[in-house]
């Protein structure tokens, strides 16, 4: 009897024994009396070798019918083989086809254009490169959660359907909501995390967030996953320390747990190994001066756009903090700098190698009156923010937090040209299929 449950990643435990390999054909070639079938099962790839004289006529005949992405169960002996890519091979005894496609698999070895691949994303996710990227994503999320759980944070699941706007009214998805008129898809969990930080002290969330951004750039999705943290009694400086500690932890652990995947993606690990605290910090004002030296036509008060971010992030080997932006270009909830009311206590964190912003964070306005004034100035309906203002009425404390875009972090870690490969099924302004 062959034990059930074999997976290619466990080959070492099965060396010298029989196994039933369940998977899909990723490559097949024959040479007369032999077939070499490369099988994928999601944990790896293994070559199954079929020798005509060692199998039934029927099994050998099946081999000639197998095509790319045929699903099958292959039974045979797992053998250690130092020449095999994964260190093991299977000597086949018997093959049970599960499904042999009637038509040729649409994705072939030849280079396809990005539109074709995006249109076939549901099949593209089976390819080696996508398998590597999505496994790094899975690990990144596991490690992110571990970081916060191990450091005394409480997970707070924040709502997706919300009545108050979290960031800016410019990029909202709206949907009808019974008797309340419209609800918005959450742009951030932050406002709810702030309420929870006054309950638990240290909280985090990780979930999908939505922006109806009209941006068609390599950094923008309309649905992306954000990892957010909020801490009572943290000021902006302490908030930046937390961010650099977390990012360094994530990078260090991903290098360790995804060595094989990053190797496949040919990621330069030396660059990632440099990601250790402290990260350089430059003020917004210093960033503007630096950009001027790089021949950008920018003035104090301008937002720092994508091209500017790229240029700044190419100037540093580590992620760089840009802190304390003008109030005008930032969200209503940020705390004004007590030394200069034109400025708010906040930071962006730009990833190196030209990747740009991966984190936005700030100290929050903890003063009832000035927060209410800002809400009104922004033209927001203060009645919808009664609950948010309450946090400032009952035991208000200085508090800070940040949000990290999982896809942007992953794009940098895997050195991807675009965030669309960093999420299983990307939602873009021009894509809702598949
Ligand atoms: O708008 S952020 O800069 N900040 C917030 O939403 C805060 N409310 C977070 C907080 O303090 N709790 O977005 C945070 C990050 C940003 O740095 C990006 O990495 C990512 O979220 N982000 C995006 N990723 C992909 N696509 C889009 N459109 C996008 N927008 C932001």
Question: What does this molecule look like?
Answer:
With 434 residues, the protein is of the alpha+beta class. It folds into two domains: 8-99, Beta Barrel (OB fold (Dihydrolipoamide Acetyltransferase, E2P)); 121-422, 2-Layer Sandwich (BirA Bifunctional Protein, domain 2), CATH 3.30.930. It is 31% helix and 26% strand. The strands form four sheets. Strands 6-10-11-18-17-16-13-12 form an eight-stranded mixed beta sheet. Helix 5 crosses helix 7 (236-257). The protein is elongated, with a radius of gyration of 26 Å. The two termini are 41 Å apart. Bound molecules: 5'-O-[N-(L-asparaginyl)sulfamoyl]adenosine. 5'-O-[N-(L-asparaginyl)sulfamoyl]adenosine binds next to strand 11, strand 17, strand 18 and helix 14.
Question: Brief description of this entry?
Answer:
The chain is α+β, with helices and mostly antiparallel strands and 434 residues long.
CATH level-4 homologous superfamily of the largest domain:
Bira Bifunctional Protein, Domain 2
Number of helices: 14
Q: Mind summarizing the main beta sheet?
A: 8 strands, mixed
Q: Which distinct ligands sit in these coordinates?
A: 5'-O-[N-(L-asparaginyl)sulfamoyl]adenosine
CA-based shape: elongated
| Extended strand count | 18
Named CATH architecture of the largest domain: 2-Layer Sandwich
> What is the alpha-carbon Rg in Å?
26 Å
- Could you say which structural class the secondary elements and strand pairing correspond to? alpha+beta
The span between the termini is 41 Å
CATH class of the largest domain: Alpha Beta
Which residue ranges are poorly predicted, with pLDDT under 50 across at least 5 consecutive positions? Answer: none
């Amino acid at each position: 009897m062959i034990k059930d449950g074999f997976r290619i990643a466990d080959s070492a435990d099965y060396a010298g024994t029989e196994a039933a390999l369940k998977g899909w054909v990723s490559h097949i070639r024959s040479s007369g009396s032999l077939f070499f079938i490369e099988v994928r099962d999601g944990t790896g790839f293994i070559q199954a070798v079929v020798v005509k004289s060692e199998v039934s006529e029927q099994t050998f005949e099946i081999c000639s019918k197998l095509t790319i992405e045929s699903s099958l169960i292959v039974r045979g002996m797992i053998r250690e083989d130092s020449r095999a890519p994964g260190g093991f091979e299977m000597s086949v005894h018997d093959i049970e086809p599960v499904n042999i496609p009637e038509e040729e698999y649409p994705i072939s070895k030849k280079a396809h254009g990005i539109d074709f691949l995006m249109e076939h994303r549901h099949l593209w996710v089976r390819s080696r490169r996508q398998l590597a990227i999505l496994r790094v994503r899975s690990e990144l999320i596991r490690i992110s959660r571990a970081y916060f759980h191990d450091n005394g944070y409480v997970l707070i699941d924040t709502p997706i359907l919300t009545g108050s706007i979290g960031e800016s009214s410019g990029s909202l998805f709206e949907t009808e909501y019974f008797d309340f008129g419209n609800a918005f898809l959450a742009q951030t969990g932050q406002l709810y995390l702030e309420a929870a930080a006054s309950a638990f002290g240290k909280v985090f969330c990780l979930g999908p967030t939505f922006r109806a951004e009209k941006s068609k750039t390599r950094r923008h999705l309309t649905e992306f996953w954000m990892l957010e943290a909020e801490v009572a009694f943290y000021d902006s400086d302490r908030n930046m320390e937390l961010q650099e500690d977390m990012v360094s932890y994530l990078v260090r652990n991903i290098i360790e747990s995804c060595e094989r995947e990053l190797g496949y993606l040919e990621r330069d690990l030396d660059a990632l190994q440099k990601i250790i605290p402290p990260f350089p910090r430059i003020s917004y004002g210093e960033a503007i001066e630096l950009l001027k030296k790089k021949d950008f036509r920018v003035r104090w008060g301008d937002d720092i756009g994508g091209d500017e971010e790229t240029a700044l992030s190419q100037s540093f080997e580590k992620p760089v903090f840009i802190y304390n932006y003008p109030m005008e270009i930032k969200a209503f909830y940020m705390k004004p700098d007590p030394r200069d009311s034109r400025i708010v206590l906040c930071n962006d964190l730009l990833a190196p190698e030209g990747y740009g912003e991966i984190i936005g964070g700030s100290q929050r306005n903890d003063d009832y009156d000035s927060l209410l004034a800002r809400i009104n100035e922004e033209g927001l309906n203060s009645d919808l923010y009664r609950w948010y203002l309450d946090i400032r009425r009952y035991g208000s404390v200085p508090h800070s937090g940040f949000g990290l875009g999982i896809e942007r972090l992953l794009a940098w870690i895997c050195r991807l040209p675009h965030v669309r490969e960093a999420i299983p099924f990307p939602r873009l302004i021009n894509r809702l299929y598949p």
